[in-house]
Amino acid sequence: MSKERRWCLRKNMSLNVDIVCNGQSDILHCKTRNLGLEGIFVETNNTNIKEKTPVKVMFPQTDDTDPEQQQILASVVHSNDQGIGLSFRIQDISTIRFMRKIFYKQK
Fold this sequence. Notes:
The protein is mostly beta strands. It contains one helix and seven strands. The radius of gyration is 13 Å and the shape is globular. The model has no long low-confidence stretch (mean pLDDT about 80).
């Protein structure tokens, strides 16, 4: 198992997200356990996903200002019988803004 390197705080929050593994058509419907600006832990029954597997995390619309579901690329950093830990691969400033919006909006 690889050692996690977190550069920001994680916040416990429960959100419905969908995970799509690279090259697969199956969608995993998951709930987040915690979230940070650089990563997320999702609860899932499918823990056969290997470390370093690229995935797409699909967040639902947060409000009427979001035109569509936000998709963020990530990599699996660890998995256990409770779920998988993902590290985001930030593509642009809009992704950072979206994550800040979710992180600071949720109680």
